[in-house]
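Late entry, evening session. Most of the bench is empty. Finally got around to the prediction I had been postponing all week. Sequence below, unchanged from the version circulated by S.P.
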Amino acid sequence: MIDLENRIAQALESYEAAVYERNVDAFLRLYDPEARVFDAWDVWSYAGTAARRSAIEQWFSSLGTERVKVIFDEVGNGPTKIS
């Protein structure tokens, strides 16, 4: 379980860093290339990396000089034992 918790923590830290740095490639590497990602903004869903790249580039470029600090809280409050 410790290994899983470390992997989850690492994924969340990578997400935080990619968004803060506005690093499109690092952000997209967090997802399986074939993942379908649902969004609540302009487009309902994106299937695959190519479909998401433009949206992520637009999001990051729309920020100008602003930096987004992502904070995950209450991580790990789920079941402590899986049977």
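Two things to note before I forget:
The chain has three helices and two strands.
The mean pLDDT is 87.
Will write this up properly tomorrow.
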